[in-house]
Automatic annotation (TrEMBL):
GO MF annotation, one: secondary active sulfate transmembrane transporter activity
GO cellular component: membrane
PROSITE patterns listed in its UniProt record: SLC26A
Annotated localization: Membrane
Domain SLC26A/SulP transporter intervals: 66-459
Pfam families, per database record: Sulfate_transp
Residue spans crossing the bilayer: 84-109, 164-186, 243-260, 272-294, 321-344, 451-484
Main location: membrane
Taxonomic placement: Eukaryota, Metazoa, Chordata, Craniata, Vertebrata
InterPro entries given in the database record: S04_transporter_CS, SLC26A/SulP_dom, SLC26A/SulP_fam, STAS_dom_sf
Membrane disposition: Multi-pass membrane protein
The entry's keywords: Membrane, Transmembrane, Transmembrane helix
Protein name: Solute carrier family 26 member 6, like 1
Length: 697
């Protein structure tokens, strides 16, 4: 082969290659499965990424930025951990636990340098739906000896809810670990961006409704299952006359202050080295006001209550709960991973490093599984905290944020006992601003892709009405249906050759490309062919080429029978003209569950004395053909070519010299017209994947 490059042009001269010659000229390397020291080292490094980057850590380059970002993120962990614990229907201290232990585990096993693992709105809501379903208030009413009172045994209820949350978290973590070990990280690709954004937008609606009771100071009935959001809203509306005014005032003042402070923070973001911790300032100020104004005792404003100091010992979760929460655990595992990997890949692309999707699944699973033994609930990365970690200059997963959370749990937790729950509910509400902005996706998707818009709307509606678990299942099912539907409606096009090159482009979209090789037509499908759209593909082939194989076969057989009768009646007539042999090519072939379609093509074309040649088959396709016993004495690798251009050149250089018998044009005019147009123009060369060529003999 000779290759030269001058002034942006190149020229390649080589002989036409079929598959057999290509294999003879190449040496295929066999990968060794033997364990070696370098392989063992790479395996350990991939399983424990901290061993890769920690020895190379530069304190001078990364120390100060990591310390600043760690402190900033740790300060955000405190209010968000306590606030999101309310969404999970758990005491606030368990939100702090969930901000500590999983982050420590992720430090060793995670591959992303910028995401902040801890509590997150969507997962908190999902955990809350599980805890309130399995541990409702009505199951913990106090018994005064003769009958049940309306008073709830909060201690017993919260204790059982913690067990439910821990069991769900451990099970979800184990699911993530198993999926990661079997290299199932690609599962996140089935959750498209419109689906995830619509799901989080609908989850924000659930979060708002769940916090209305704390914002208004009312006690609505919490429903579960389909339409629970509608029933809860109906109950909240009926209780509006009973709104607790002091709680509403606390909520309103906190909301105005938070919104104003966040807007000021955004306005001054370019001038501030680190963002102002407005949430921490809010809970500190609210705690001081509540403590000195005696809001709980004088105005019955609900407060956080006792926050135990110190770390709780690990405990084995109640495995008997696993059977009741396996569906919820799977949903938590998938949603948490999808959110984390999407945000992790965004930061990795921005800063030029790689995130291993399978290792992320294992790291997140271990964070949840180990955290569940310490009474944590399901966690993933938080968008707001991750952005703070990245914008404040964070370079790695340092432990400064965990230290701040640890100090708060050990020494400072008791100081927040007088914090009003309404303030935590307002923090949740204001932090949902970003999710509410996602409603603008409707306008964007309307302009960009109607398919994605339908997925967005169906996901949003199903999540709102069917709850988070069933809504996720319905959304994924519908998204997969749209994928199948898209494969049923591919784009078929006829390609033309760019003069002087081996390139082929669509002649409809490139109107300046009108050049066709005499006797050759190239057909392309935008979708990969499999059993569900194979028939549609063949129909499109017939439509684009004007060729109906079945009618040609019927026509040929009729003509053969008629010819035999003529020969028996009159032997003195001229012998039938020799059948011509037509050589055709078949481009890139994809094999899936069987070889039915490809064998059918060979069989059909052999019926009309047409030889098939394949071109552009990848090595994996050739291997599948061999495993399926596709090759035989009549169909050898000499029928496979390295590229479409090789196949075209071979056909043009080896055209059959014989001609077709001249059938009488009075039988069926459509068939005759089609048949003779083929003589003048087209003979099919088939593909199951990319390109279809038609070659005239």
């Amino acid at each position: 082969m000779e290759s030269t490059r001058r002034f942006g042009k190149y020229r390649v001269e080589r002989e036409v290659l079929d598959e057999q010659r290509l294999e003879e000229s190449l040496c295929f390397l066999q990968t060794s499965s033997r364990c070696t020291v370098p392989k063992l080292k790479r395996s350990v490094m991939s399983s424990l990424p901290v061993l890769y980057w920690l020895p190379k850590y530069s304190v001078w380059d990364y120390g100060m930025p990591d310390l600043i970002s760690g402190i900033s993120v740790g300060i955000m962990h405190l209010p968000q951990g306590m606030a999101y614990a309310l969404l999970a229907s758990l005491p606030p201290v368990f939100g702090l636990y969930s901000s500590l232990y999983p982050a420590l585990i992720y430090f060793f096993f995670g591959t992303s340098r910028h995401i902040s693992i801890g509590t997150f709105t969507v997962l908190s809501i999902m955990v809350g739906s599980v805890t309130e379903r399995l541990a409702p208030d009505v199951a913990f009413l106090k018994n005064n000896g003769t009958n049940f009172t309306a008073e709830v045994d909060i201690t017993a209820r919260d204790s059982y809810r913690v067990q439910v949350a821990a069991a769900t978290t451990v099970l979800g973590g184990l699911i993530q670990v198993v999926l990661g070990l079997v290299k199932f990280g690609f599962v996140g690709t089935y959750l498209s961006e419109p689906l995830v954004r619509a799901y989080t937008t609908a989850a924000a609606g659930h979060a708002v409704v769940a916090q209305l009771k704390n914002i208004l100071g009312i006690s609505p009935t919490r429903f579960s299952g389909p339409l629970s959001l509608v029933y809860t809203l109906k109950d909240v509306c009926s209780l509006l006359p009973q709104t607790h005014l002091p709680t509403l005032v606390v909520s309103a003042v906190s909301m105005v202050f938070l919104i104003a402070a966040k807007e000021l923070n955004s306005f001054l973001s370019s001038k501030l080295p680190v963002p102002i911790p407005v949430e921490l300032i809010t809970i500190v100020a609210a705690t001081l006001i509540s403590n000195y104004a005696y809001l709980n005792s004088n105005y019955t404003v609900s407060v956080v209550g006792e926050i135990p100091s110190g770390l709780s010992p690990p405990s084995v979760p109640d495995v008997s709960i696993f059977g009741e929460v396996i569906g919820d655990a799977f949903a938590l595992a998938i949603v948490g991973y999808a959110i984390s990997i999407s945000l992790g890949k965004t930061f990795a692309l921005k800063h030029g490093y790689k995130v291993d999707s399978n290792q992320e699944l294992v790291a997140l699973g271990l964070s949840n599984a180990v955290g569940g033994f310490f009474q944590c609930y399901s966690v993933c990365c938080s968008m707001s905290r991750s952005l703070i970690q990245e914008t404040t200059g964070g370079k790695t997963q340092v432990m400064a944020s965990a230290v701040i959370v640890l100090v708060t749990i050990l020494k400072l937790g008791a100081l927040f006992q007088e914090l009003p729950k309404a303030v935590l509910a307002v923090i949740v509400f204001v932090n949902l601003k970003g999710m509410f902005k996602q409603y603008s996706d409707i306008v964007t998707l309307w302009r960009r892709s109607k398919f994605d818009l339908v997925v967005w709307l169906v996901t949003w509606v199903s999540t709102l009405l069917l709850n988070l678990d069933l809504g996720l299942a319905a959304s994924i099912s519908f998204a997969l249906l749209t994928v199948i539907f898209r494969t049923q409606l591919p784009t078929y096009s006829v390609l033309g050759n760019v003069p002087g090159t081996e390139l082929y482009v669509d002649i409809e979209t490139h109107r300046e490309v009108k050049h066709k090789i005499p006797g050759v037509t190239i057909f392309r499908s935008s979708a990969t062919v499999y059993y569900a759209n194979a028939e549609l593909y063949l129909e499109a082939l017939k439509e684009k080429s004007g060729l109906d194989i079945s009618k040609m076969i019927i026509y040929k057989r009729r003509q053969e029978a008629k010819q035999k009768r003529r020969e028996r009646r009159a032997e003195r007539r001229a012998k039938r003209q020799a059948k011509r042999e037509v050589k055709c090519n078949m481009d890139h072939l994809k094999i899936y569950s069987d070889f039915f379609l490809s064998c059918l093509i060979f069989q059909d074309f052999s019926e009309i004395d047409v030889d098939i040649y394949m071109a552009g088959c990848q090595a994996s396709v050739v291997e599948q053909l061999e495993l399926g016993d596709f090759f035989s004495e009549s169909i050898t690798k000499r029928r496979l070519f390295a590229s479409v251009h090789d196949a075209v050149l071979y056909c043009l250089n080896h055209r059959g010299a014989a001609s077709f018998p001249r059938y009488e044009p009075s039988v069926v005019s459509m068939i005759v017209d089609t048949f003779f147009s083929i003589l003048n123009c087209l003979i099919p060369v088939h593909t199951l994947g990319k390109t279809l060529l038609f070659v005239n003999s």
